C-alpha cells in the first residue's frame, strides 16, 4: 500500500469521525430533552446531573394535557404556521417568477427594495404593524397572526434565484404554443421549483411554529388563540418552577415533534434546494 493511499484513508477516517462527532453533538440536546421529560422533579433538580430517568414518568405527558389546553394550542399553531407557509409559498413563487423571467419597468429597483427589507430586524416593525392590526380591528384574531407574515423578502429572493436557473428557451417554447404567463407559472415553473419550495416551506413553518413574541402581543387577552410557545410559557407562570420544570420540558417535546417530522419528510428537497438555488445569479 503506497503512502498516498494511506494518507487518503486516514483523511477519510478523520472526516467520518468529525461528522459522527458533529451529529452526536447536534442530537445530544434532543436526547436530553426527551430523557428529562420522563424524569421526576426530584431527579431533574438533583445536584448530580442524570442522563436517564431511573423510572420513566410517562404520566408527565398526561399531566401536561391536564394542566394546559395544549390541544387547543396545537390547533392554533398548526393553523397559523400552515396558513403562513402556504401564503409565503404562493406570494414568493409568483413574485420570484416575475422578477426572474418577466420584463417590466422598475424591476431592478423594486427587487432591490425587497432585498432591503431583509436588512432590518423584525423588532423595528412590531409597533407599526401592531397599530395597523388595531386599526383594522384584527387584534385577537387569526388575521393578526397570519396576514403580517404572508410575504417574505427572503422567500422572494430564494425563489427568484432558483427560477433564474430555468432556461428561457423552455418558457419561450411554451409561449410559442400559446401558453399565457399564468399557465407557464402553473405547469412549468411550479413543478421545476419543488426543491426550493420545500426549502422555503421548512424554514417558514419552523419559524412560525416557534414564534413567540408576536403571538404573545396580539393574543394577550384571547387564550383561545394562543399558539404553543405562548401556551407553554403560561405553564411556568401558573405554577412554581420546581413543580413544573419537568412538565415544561415535556411540553417542549410536544412542540418539537411536528418540526422534526416536517424536516425529516422534506429534508431531501431542503438539501437539493440549497444546492440548486443558484445564489450566485444576482
Question: TL;DR?
Answer:
The chain is built from 14 helices and no strands. The chain is an all-alpha fold and 282 residues long.
User: Alpha-carbon distance between the termini?
Assistant: 48 Å
Q: Class by helix and strand content?
A: mainly alpha
**What coarse outline follows from CA principal-axis ratios?**
flat
By CATH reckoning, the class of the largest domain would read Mainly Alpha
Summed up, the helix count is 14
Low-confidence stretches are 278-282
Instruction: State the major sheet.
Output: none
At CATH level 3, the topology of the largest domain is MetI-like fold
Proportion of helical residues: over 70%
Elements, N to C (H/E): HHHHHHHHHHHHHH
Number of strands: 0
Please explain how this structure is put together.
With 282 residues, the protein is an all-alpha fold. The chain has two domains: 3-37; 60-276, Orthogonal Bundle (MetI-like fold). Helix content is 73%, strand content 0%. It is built from 14 helices and no strands. It has helices at 3-37, 41-44, 59-67, 70-101, 107-116, 126-136, 142-146, 153-163, 168-176, 181-192, 194-209, 213-218, 228-238, 241-276. Helix 4 packs across helix 8 (153-163), helix 4 runs antiparallel to helix 11 (194-209) and helix 13 packs antiparallel against helix 14 (241-276). The protein is flat and about 70 Å long. Mean pLDDT is 84; it is low at 278-282.
Amino acid at each position: 500500500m503506497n503512502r498516498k493511499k494511506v494518507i487518503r484513508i486516514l483523511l477519510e477516517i478523520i472526516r467520518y469521525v468529525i461528522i459522527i462527532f458533529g451529529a452526536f453533538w447536534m442530537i445530544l440536546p434532543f436526547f436530553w430533552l426527551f430523557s428529562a421529560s420522563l424524569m421526576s422533579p426530584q431527579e431533574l433538580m438533583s445536584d448530580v446531573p442524570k442522563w436517564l430517568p431511573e423510572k420513566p414518568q410517562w404520566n408527565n405527558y398526561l399531566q401536561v394535557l391536564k394542566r394546559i389546553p395544549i390541544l387547543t394550542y396545537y390547533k392554533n399553531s398548526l393553523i397559523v404556521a400552515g396558513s403562513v407557509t402556504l401564503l409565503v409559498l404562493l406570494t414568493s413563487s409568483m413574485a420570484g417568477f416575475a422578477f426572474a423571467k418577466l420584463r417590466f419597468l422598475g424591476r431592478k429597483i423594486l427587487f432591490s427594495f425587497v432585498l432591503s427589507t431583509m436588512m432590518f430586524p423584525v423588532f423595528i416593525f412590531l409597533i407599526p404593524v401592531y397599530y395597523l392590526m388595531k386599526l383594522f380591528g384584527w387584534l385577537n384574531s387569526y388575521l393578526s397572526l397570519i396576514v403580517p407574515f404572508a410575504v417574505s423578502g427572503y422567500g422572494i429572493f430564494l425563489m427568484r434565484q432558483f427560477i433564474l436557473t430555468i432556461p428561457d428557451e423552455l418558457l419561450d417554447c411554451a409561449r410559442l404554443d400559446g401558453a399565457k404567463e399564468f399557465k407557464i407559472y402553473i405547469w412549468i415553473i411550479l413543478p421545476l421549483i419543488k426543491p426550493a419550495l420545500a426549502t422555503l416551506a421548512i424554514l417558514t413553518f419552523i419559524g412560525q411554529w416557534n414564534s413567540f413574541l408576536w403571538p404573545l402581543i396580539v393574543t394577550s387577552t384571547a387564550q383561545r388563540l394562543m399558539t404553543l410557545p405562548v401556551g407553554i410559557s403560561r405553564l411556568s407562570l401558573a405554577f412554581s418552577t420546581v413543580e413544573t420544570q419537568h412538565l415544561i420540558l415535556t411540553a417542549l417535546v410536544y412542540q418539537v415533534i411536528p418540526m422534526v417530522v416536517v424536516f425529516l419528510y422534506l429534508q431531501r428537497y431542503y438539501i437539493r434546494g440549497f444546492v440548486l438555488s443558484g445564489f450566485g445569479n444576482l
